[in-house]
Amino acid sequence: MSWDLSSDRPIYTQLIEQIELRICSGVYPPGSKMPSVRDLAQEASVNPNTMQRALAGLEETGLLYTCRTSGRFVTEDRARIKEVKARLAKDHVKAFLKKMKELGFDHEEILEILRDFSGGDKK
Amino acid sequence: MTYILESENLTKEFNGITVLKNVNLKIPRGRIIGLLGPNGSGKTTFIKLCNALLTPTSGKLLINGKKPGVETKAVISYLPERSYLNDWMKVSEIIGFFRDFYEDFNAHKAYDMLKSLNLNPNDKLRNMSKGTKEKVQLILVMSREAQLYLLDEPIGGVDPAARDYILDTILRNYNEDATLILSTHLIADIEKILDEVIFLKEGQVVMQQTVDQIREESGKSIDSLFREVFKC
Q1: Are A22 and A64 in contact (CB under 8 A)?
Q2: pLDDT tens, A53-89?
Q3: With an 8 Å Cβ cutoff, is A35 touching chain B?
Q4: Which of B172, B193, B223 comes nearest A46 by C-beta?
Q5: How does residue A123 score in pLDDT terms, banded at 50, 70 and 90?
Q6: Which residue of A has its CA nearest to B31?
Q7: Interacting residues of B223 by C-beta distance below 8 A, sequence separation 6+
Q8: Residues B54-92: pLDDT tens digits?
Q9: Interface membership of A32 toward B (CB under 8 Å)
Q10: Across the interface, do A7 and B191 touch by the CB < 8 Å criterion?
Q11: B5-229: which CATH number, 3.60.15.10, 3.40.50.1110, 3.40.710.10, 3.40.50.300?
Q12: pTM for the whole structure
């Protein structure tokens, strides 16, 4: 998974989103140890202080926790991860619906397109 | 802890022309800072003042709490806009030269970086392209374990792939106590790795803010903001 950062929004909020995504998709599984700030910053080609800030933000929301001596870990609370997953899904659907409405589709038509799509492509 | 760099009403004139005017800056340790501004805004003059290559007309400038001079040069690793290296020397000879000059020079690191960029230590500088020479210089500068890195246009002449490697190198060698200030026009390429930017306009600081603050408040990248502030 590559780190896609757009240029018009704060970097640390985008890092939070991308790490959330990685936690939800299991790149960083529940209870696993996170790479170091330096490694993550290098991987994403961002400033280490910005990465540090993003990780601190994720600790605040409970997705990560720090063990004083051994580093930073992904939460083992699967329900919490599920919540985040649901929120991310909602955001995606909202964005999708907004785009479709801009294109001029109404609710029924959107549903139809979705049905056709998932019928033809079982991915 | 003292600021690594502090200036108070720093002013520099050349023959009655003011190039820097009342520059007030406080720069802490452990930051990566972009010094941005259009041509002739005073970036290089500021960096030269920090390196004691120029003396201020008035005002105060302190590096690590001291006036620029022999002691501050020992803690600053400086990449000038123009090369001062001897063309007839081989890269390996220049590395030896740096090792003799600077106590904090890590030759190991230099050879490692040469290898990653496929550069031959036995090549003479004279036989290298402009971009390759720039890479060598940057390797030398980044191989020092300095407290303050001052890079004047470090990535201007190198190709985008090498640019990425160089930014990577900067991040990898980042050390919590060191601060790195770089001046450049290639803002879009570097803004992700910056903590803060300083905008210079006609010799004055018009903005000093963190990258995320700017993005949050303006909803724009530093690159687009720059184009707006300095629209011709």
Answers
A1: no
A2: 999 999 999 999 998 888 999 999 999 999 999 999 9
A3: no
A4: B193
A5: very low
A6: A49
A7: A7, B187, B188, B191
A8: 999 999 999 999 999 999 999 999 999 888 888 899 999
A9: no
A10: yes
A11: 3.40.50.300
A12: 0.86
Cβ-Cβ contacts under 8 Å, A7 against chain B = 188, 191, 221, 223-224
First to last CA, chain A: 19
Q: Return the domain boundaries, chain B.
A: 5-229
A36 touches chain B (CB under 8 A): no
User: For B216, which residue in chain A has the nearest alpha carbon?
Assistant: A10
Q: B39 pLDDT band (50/70/90 cuts)?
A: confident
ipTM score of the complex? Answer: 0.79
Q: For strand B204-210 and strand B179-183, is the pairing parallel, antiparallel, or unpaired?
A: unpaired
